[in-house]
Amino acid sequence: MSKSQAKKKESSPSKASLADRQASSGSLVNTSSESLGGAWRCRFPVWPEWSDAEVNKEKWDSSKGAEDDKKSSKSSNAPFFEDPEGKIPPSLKVHCWKRPTEFIVDKTPTVVESQRTFDLLSNNDHLICSELMRWIISEICIVWTLCGNKFREEERWKPWEHIYSLCKVVKGHMPLYNSFGKYLVKLYWMGSWRKIAVDDCMPFDEENNLLLPASTCQAELWPMLLAKALIKVANSKSVTLTLVVSEGEMGEFTFINALTGWIPEIRPLQSLYLGKTWDFLLDTIPVFSHPIESLPEDTKSQTSDSVSGRCSSMNRTRRQISDRENGCPDVVLCVSQYAFQPHNDPLRFGQMANSSEVLRQYNLSLLYSHIALLTRTRSCQLEVPPQPLPVPRWKLVRPHKEYVITAEPRKPPLLKPEQFIEVASPFLSHGLKGSVGSIPESEGAQRMRSHGSPLVCIAEREETDFRDGLEPDVAEHTPNPPSNYDNITVIAEDREKDDDDISTEEPITGTEEPVTEEVLVPVLPLLQKIWMDLDDFAECFQNLFVFHKPHLYSRHVHKCHFKSNVVPKSATGSNCSVSSSQSLTTGCPSVTLDFANPECPEVRGTHYLCVDSMQPSQILISFSVLLLWGLTAEEKKEISATCRSGVLIAQPHSWKSAQSQLPVLTIKTTSSKAAVLDLPPGRHVLSFHTKAALGYHVHLCGNTPFIFGDEETVMSHLTKESARFTDLDTSLLRALARVVTSFGNRHKRSDPGRALQETHQPLNINTPLAKWEHQKVFNSAVYHMLCEALGRKLVAEERFAVMALTADPYLFNHGCIEDSPELDAESKPPENWRDRQPSIQEVKAATVLQARFRGHLVREILKATKPGTKENLSAAKILSGMWTKVKTHAEENAVFLLRDIIDHHCKGNAMLYPCQEDEWTKISFDDYIVSLQDTANSWILVFREVFLIPKEMLLVTKIYSPIPNCLLHVIDNDTGEELDNKLATRVYQPNKLGYTFVAEAVIPESPPVGANWKLRLISSREPLPKLAREAPLNNFSVKEIRDYYIPNDDNRICRYLVQVTEDVQGTVQIQTSSPDVFIHLAILDQEKEVASKTGKGHVVIPVVWFLVDKDEMDQQSPTQDEGVKVVDTPPQKAEKPDSSSDQPPTETMGRTYVVQAYVLHKSWDLDEAQLDFVHQLRDLQKIEMRAYKPEDSKRSSSTPKGKGGGDKEKGKPGATSKSGSKPETSLDLTKPHWTLRVVSDESQAESVEVKKDTARVDQIQSIKRAWEMVEPGRSAKALQSRLQFLNPDQRQEEEVDGEELGTELTTAPTSGPDTSPANQKHATTSFTFTQMDYTPFIRRHKEFPVLMDTQMEKMEEKERLEKIQSYRLVRDNVLEKQEEQELNRKELMSSQLEIYDDMQAVLWQRRKKFLNACKAFSSRLMAAVKKEREEKQALEEAQHAVQEKTNPASAGSKHSSKSAKKAGKKK
Q1: Which of 165, 161, 166, 167 is nearest to 148 (CA)?
Q2: pLDDT tens readout for residues 1333-1347
Q3: Strand ranges (DSSP E) for 51-182?
Q4: According to the 3-state scheme, what is the secondary structure of 1291-1330?
Q5: Alpha-carbon distance 366 to 372, whole Å?
Q6: Quick check: helix, strand or coil at residue 748?
Q7: Which of 382, 389, 371, 281 lies closest to 335 in space, CA to CA?
């Protein structure tokens, strides 16, 4: 802000007029926009970093001022220092400016008057309407409350110690009043402490009120100076004033960060996550509890247990974090509120009303949005519950149950848990004194829900007036002011009671409450405290500020990147200011080149983070941005068009995958914001993408080791194994070493073996079969590791020792077949047994021998596993000898052992160990660097090399090029096909000839001087692809040919011959002056296409082999298909491309290839001017085609045959060639033209020759010359015949002249046509002829008219007959097939009928046979039954006869008795 104009206009600031104030405000806008540089028009001054040495050398007076002072003041002879960057927000209307000597009259101005305490509220009631001033006052009070009352003097924070004037930089310095008005303030901004210069000119309003906060000491200046510096820093974030209205005037900017350097983390408060918020508050800030002595007897134990349990859980949690991060960082919790803006969202009227009502219940106001401190949490009642009355013991014997009779069933009431938070604020009850109904003490400071609450009803129009800076008259809306004093008194007493329990220490660091006894005079606290319910807490406040103290973290990394038009005042000229000695350079060179340019709308950067830890880790990420800001309408439009806030996005990254991952962290801020990144155990790689308008700063803190930097810094650490992998392989090798060491000790043999099994056994393998399979894999890995350590195969004794160590006799049957003894040279069969077939007895004998031998081997191994035996001692000695070599390279052998287990597991991709999750980040890479040519506006071949791939591998190709237009081609040399270059990640299969990597580029107008091009091949692990030669080469020989484009019937652009004397690997490229032309480029060998490609405006065949040997080409040529067809790849040239360069050249050119290009789809359109130019070129071609010229008749008659083609290029604008001699004429690049390039190695430049194909032209010209020599005058006669045909009216007149001409030619054969008068007459006479009507002879079936002659009629008749004949043949074939199908159907029907009849006959026979059998069976059954019945009847009769013979008397008596009974009945 400019203040000199206002002072020049008036001697006293109190006499300022309205016009002067308007001029001053206009000067404010102009100066601010000029000094801070609105969109991109000027440079934004970045304040220099703080340096104690520079401050000690500072010049404080005007006559001996430093360079900064001279630059900041308008004149070197100014009477006092004036800050050109000073600025006051528009909400505070400045009327005039005064120096301290003008408004402090009774006393001498001083910077600090009272060092014990201060009061920033009593004299600043007129500033409370400004949100900026409320935040400054509240945050200064919060920091003073936290750090200003500590016992140790060195730990105390004093706000005036940020100000320096006429003093040295020492601890506890005291700034003095400077009559020159220059003061330096130390504030934290953009990641470092900055030196900010301010003056002592203070703004006043029309009522002569100071517009900066002042203390109760009238002569004290430190609050105003500190506020001016804070406002100056806040103005760099003033884009929030115009864009983020819903977040208030301050937005996300905090003065606590500027005063202390604490890192602010902003968490939104939401009612859905109140449970998590409450748990976080319990673990962070102290918990309120009652003294144990004041509790009842029956509740002491319960309370003490709960409190001790909670404290123990908190201490346990903090102890765990301390063990994990080497110390728990102390944090400070604050909350903020901001006024809602219903015009943006009408649905927020209800939310605003609810929040306003709840805030007034706690003596807060929605109009006074500010930041407040959280000191304690409470889960119990505020007062100690009363002790219950004593109950006689006799009543406890059989207590009576109390019955409550109700009309309806009662539900037990749901008790709300006690969850309260203590909020400390300097503006508690401010503006509502004597009017707002406080919360009754009997309810424990809970929210009041009664309808008769004596609250003040503030209208919405008053809130609008408050936002405009007016002070409301609250007394007018107070119903009963005196009735509320009692409640306020009670609350004050409660606060005094609470203050007695609060420790003077920082409330976050401890839960004890010591009392300071050194202070005799009581000091009133700057913050007033009140308990707030958790539900109301979420209703009142919107953001939770968590301030982290960075000095409690052991590791810090800073990254800072500013725009080139944002420079520090020291004018160092660097684009990036790094504020930490531990930080590295910012970004890769491409980022600096692309985004540090002032013409670019924003600054972008990419950084990478690597965290490798065995335990869960936390990384605190702070992101600060410098945004655009302005006050004019045009600047606001420009701001809205560009970015409104800075963004940091963190997402998992892997160089082996091109797929983008979902972000794990996103920070979007307008000033400074932080977030905590929680990572599980393992190795994690994340990419950080940052974006800001003018600059940004990234600060990472943590107690876990991490690496943060550019791509080169992080990738070098990913080639090593992860921490979990290293820990596991080290533990595995250590356990195996203990087993080997104690192999012969019988007392320690079991424990090391069990520990080894627990180490290598995965947790996810539970079944016995899976464990057995894994044990076999482990045994095989141990054997392979020993072979790798010794560098050879093991002998028989060593193999026996390994089998004894693993206790696996079948080791060489499942895991080590390739190294088994059966494959050794000693075990080969004798000569007389190789071609002999063994007999059965020999096979049985061999089987018995093998079984006996295996049994013997198993017994020997079992003996060797028993400690103390001879075999065991021998095996232990051998193992100890081998283990000494293993220990020499213990790390490599441990990695090999674990890697072999993972690779050879039977389940393949199964996850055996947790360390396998880190394989996603494991990489191995090689770089190939070549230099770029400095040719401007030209196509160049950058790189062309052959890589051999030994096995299947995942390979990622990445190019680092200063030229944006760079393309990489990958060609499979076995098939000649080009791989898809859109896929950067590809799995390459092994082949014989390898893969050729070809890179091309287009150099811009201003090429970089001395730049390098780099190709990086990235894979999961070694080995990487091997280069076919020792080092990459980029020295190429380019045969470049340019010529004009002449349309023709064949649509051919050019046709050239390539002659080679040795096998040459080449690259062919063609481009046209028009980028919209579709081109087909082909390479022919004996008129057979061997390679081709189609493109638009630019076509490249990356690799083609020009071979000399024809037979080899016939054997190697693969199948042709669409796309690039690269053939003729000799196998011997893939490994040694230059092997044939040493051979002597042959006497004649070996082999000729044809390179030709065509225009497709008639895509090369020419305008009228270009067509005229083309006609001229065609006329020149006609002249070249003429073999006999009248002016050269004598020379043509004497010229030998075959010598006439020497001047075929004479008179033509001509093709230019860089490889040949100097061109005759220059090429006009504005005309349609093309450029053909044939590229080969520099060492083979003399073996390649490129020339135009003129065979057809030479042949025609030689034929014409031969005709002329045999028959002189033939061309003249042909010309005469043509002219006579064109002019039939003059045929008779010219007959005589023709006869005379013929006689002259026969008599004088050497005379030319120029000497003939008839020829001169024909040449000079203009002929007129009538047009013939050709319409009867023209058919319209084609696009162009064609003359119908007898030959064409014969051809059409022939085609017609062929079509008829082919149709008849097809018809006859169809009829034959139909007849054949009909016969087949009839045969099939007859065969089916026969089969049916046979089936019926067989069925009837079987049925008849079955019925006969059933009938015979039934007859036999009936006969047997009948016979049995007859035999039974005969037997009964025989028995009856026998009984009658033996008992005749009994039978008679029975008969008499029966008769007597009958007679009695009759009576």
Answers
A1: 161
A2: 666 666 566 666 667
A3: 96-98, 163-164
A4: HHHHHHHHHHHHHHHHHCCCCCHHHCHHHHHHHHCCCCCC
A5: 13
A6: coil
A7: 371
In eight-state DSSP terms, residue 401 is: P
Element (H, E) at 744: none
Q: For residue range 742-799, what is the model confidence (pLDDT) as tens digits?
A: 887 766 655 788 888 889 888 888 888 888 888 999 999 999 999 999 999 999 899 9
Question: Closest Cα partner for 335 from 546, 137, 508?
Answer: 546
- DSSP annotation string for 1163-1197: -----HHHHHHHHHHHHHHHHHH-S--GGGHHHHH
Amino acid code (one letter) for 1281: S
- Alpha helices (runs of H) in 366-517, residue ranges in sequence order: 460-467, 485-501
- Decide: 253 and 240 in contact? Cβ < 8 Å: yes
Dig out the tokens for 1198 from the structure: 């004497």
CA nearest neighbour of 1314 among 1323, 1303, 1302: 1323
Structure tokens at 901: 């287990």
1312-1331 in b/e form (b: 16+ CB < 10 A) is bbeebebbeebeeeeeeeee
Q: Report the alpha-carbon distance of residue 232 to residue 330 in Å, rounded.
A: 29
* 574 SS3 class: coil
Host H or E run for residue 1158: strand 1151-1159
Amino acid at 1031: A
The values of phi and psi at residue 569, to 5°, are -65, -25
Q: What is the DSSP letter of 1208?
A: T
CA distance 730 to 26: 73
Task: Let me know if 668 is exposed, middle or buried by CB neighbors in 10 A (0-12, 13-18, 19+).
Answer: middle
Average pLDDT of the residues in 1406-1421: 92
Counting every residue written for the chain, the total comes to: 1467
- Among candidate residues 440, 445, 311, 449, the one with its CA nearest the CA of residue 381: 445
Cα 462 to Cα 472: distance, rounded to the nearest angstrom: 7
Cα–Cα distance measured from residue 727 to residue 915, given in angstroms and rounded to the nearest whole number = 9
User: Which two structure tokens, joined as six digits, stand for 837?
Assistant: 């077939």
∠ CA(89), CA(93), CA(356), 5° rounding?
Answer: 70
pLDDT in tens, 924-969: 999 999 998 878 778 999 999 999 998 999 999 999 998 888 999 9
Q: Please give the structure tokens belonging to residue 770.
A: 């899976």
Q: 724: which residues sit within 8 A by CB, 6+ positions away?
A: 614, 681, 682, 683, 913, 914, 915, 918
Residue 375's pLDDT band, with cuts at 50, 70 and 90, is very high
What is the sign of the dihedral through the CA atoms of 824, 826, 829 and 830?
positive
Question: What are the CA-CA distances from residue 838 to residues 180, 491, 826, 847 (Å)?
Answer: 116, 110, 20, 12
Which of 751, 431, 453, 946 has its CA nearest to residue 743?
751
Q: How far apart are CA 36 and CA 44, in angstroms?
A: 5
> Which single residue is written with the structure tokens 């990459």?
1032
Between the alpha carbon of residue 994 and those of residues 59, 946, 988, the distances in Å are 72, 6, 10
Alpha-carbon distance values, 141 to 189, 221, 233 (Å): 20, 17, 19
Residue 884, classified by CB atoms within 10 Å of its CB into exposed (0-12), middle (13-18) or buried (19+), is exposed
Instruction: Please give the structure tokens belonging to residue 549.
Output: 């103290």
Q: Please give the single-letter amino acid code of residue 1127.
A: V
Q: List strand residue ranges (DSSP E) for 271-325, in order.
A: 287-288
Query: Is the alpha carbon torsion for 1412, 1413, 1418, 1420 positive or negative?
Result: positive
- Give the DSSP letter of residue 148: S
The b/e string for 1400-1416 (b: 16+ C-beta within 10 A; e otherwise) is eeeeeeeeeeeeeeeee
Residue 272's SS3 state is: helix
Find how far residue 694's CA is from the centre of its chain: 24
Instruction: Look at the block and give the residue holding tokens 């504005």.
Output: 1230
Q: Torsion-angle region of residue 791: left (phi > 0), alpha (psi -120 to 50) or beta?
A: left
Q: Supply the DSSP symbol for 1283.
A: H
